[in-house]
Write a structure and sequence with these properties.
Elements: H1 2-17, H2 20-24, H3 38-68, H4 74-88, H5 91-106, H6 111-135, H7 139-147, H8 152-163, H9 165-180, H10 184-187, H11 207-215, H12 220-251
Amino acid sequence: MPLVLVLAYVGAEGLRGLSWSFFTELPAPVGEVGGGMANALLGTLLLVGVACLLSLPVGLLAGIYLSEFGHGSRLASAARFAADVLSGVPSILIGLFVYTLVVVPMRGFSALSGAVALGVLMIPIVMRGTEEVLRLVPDSLREAALGLGVPRWRAILGVVMPSAGPGIVTAVMLAVARAAGETAPLLFTAFGNRDWSAGLDQPIAALPLQIYTYAISPYEDWHRQAWAASLVLVGLVLILNLGARFMVRRRR
């Protein structure tokens, strides 16, 4: 029931601020009415895309190791514990961590540092999700491949991974949904931008940042746009979560 009320309220308020210009125009100057969030929409896609490039190889390889090679290993136990702890760490601490290690050495906020922060949040979700779905693959498939003389690494890549494909995609979609809605780590890393981003080494806008900035402003038009951006973001996260549930049911 609370979810329905939240979605209904966000939908009712957000529809008032949605327009074609919202998706195609840059933010209007401070105090002026109109404008849009095209830069924030593109920035969110760019941040999540780069975060996927940084986190998916690490998360997938770690999940494969834990499932296929880490049985009874102290390293595997430590990795699982670290992933579980990282999943529960407040995202603002991840932002501070990346600020210290990336923003300060680069001497400026950037899209890259924001993507690194989101990637760190995604790794434990992808890692543990990959491990769990690989464990659900029947051992008979592994044994059949090995019995045919197939090297173990080829059996994993050619037999085990395709069998667990829908589950892995589900884990990735859940990780993307988590990253797309984060605001706190981006405050310390990406910082925001009212124009198009000039590159990965420059500050960049994102929907969560724009929502935060507009929501605390004194301008009524910005409040309407904040609700519109909230509706778009909720829709994106909802689509990803529904897609993940569909993949799980399809696998069953």
